[in-house]
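Appendix B. Chain record.
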Amino acid sequence: MSSDSLYLGLDFGTSGARAMVIDAHGQVITQAHCHYDITDWNSWLRALHWLCASLPTTLRKRIASIAIDGTSSSVVICDECNVPLRPPMLYNDATAKAQALEIATSAPSGHTTTSATSSLAKLLHLLQQPEANAARYFNDQASWLAAMLTGKSGISDYHNALKLGYDVETFTWPSWIYKLNVHHLLPKVVAPGSLLGKLAPEVATKLDLSKTCCVRAGTTDSIAAFIASGAQSPGTAVTSLGSTLVVKLLSTKRVEDARYGVYSHRFGDLWLAGGASNSGGAVLRQFFDAATLATLSQQIDMTQTSGLDYYPLPKPGERFPINDAQLAPRIAPRPNSDAEFLQGLLEGMARIEARAYALLAELGTTPLNEVFTAGGGAKNPTWTAIRQQLLGVPVHTATHDAAAYGAALLAKTGPDLLS
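Structure tokens predicted for this chain:
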């Protein structure tokens, strides 16, 4: 790579897609953002093309490599040309309850795949649909988009493959998974950041990118946000406050318990333990726009609590720290004061976060000693103050809090980034 090479990270999250270009020193050169319909794979592809087209033409030819992060366990089942046969099943889709029970008869007790929202449960569900006979590939969001760039299908990274059942300790598919008759659709799994290949020539031409530009294996959106934060020490955590609330804690011990939606990703020689709640910014947007949120946050009296016992969810169903697909939102009674109502919502989400980290400690992780915050919620100082009171440890805003920045670092450094 030459000294003027640039690196492109593409983040496909729950609320939008972002591109970020960095140089060899990790400095941000340019970025772009767009909304997309996460329920429509065509919209994924349009967003990918729009983000690349939005980059200044003078920079495009200097991009040496690309990495993509996507929402964990958002999946598509595809034909022999890697064209999706059905709409995506999203990260929070809990349709596959019966399939999760089937997995539990083969998988180790408490395995992450025994959750109805796991990629493996979704695969079993999709194999029972009319299109199953035409299925040749099963892709997570990030890997499918990478395949659209390289033309090479059937490859995933071990972060996205975790909820499909991949054993990240032995780097193999476990023997029990073959009892489920899904082996013909299991991808080849590589380390995040591994070289997948160059852009397909026709893609390079269409996107006006260099024909020597490489694509690297990606990761999940929450792990990309963790990478962006720069956190490296056991006991350090990152809370991503986007549409959903995701916690990741760096630990010397691996923990996993599907009863609570807890799982651990490999992160070099350490483990990244955590889970994702359905609570988060999506709940706030149901009631307030961004400007109103900022104004009301300044009106909150931090000298006293609201006394409201909320469990804010955008709709019924929770994944972590309570794993209950039927859990109802609790956002009543609503006080007359909008500022007090917002305070109750922020306190409720802070309690969910605190409960999440407490649960991880109970399961045996390295104790929490510091939290970095990523995502839109990191910009709200009132929310930060409420969270710090409940967590009892220092809470900082990450220097780089965009998942796209973490993906760009992965594009630049490759698999060595995690070692």
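Further analysis of this model is presented in Appendix C.
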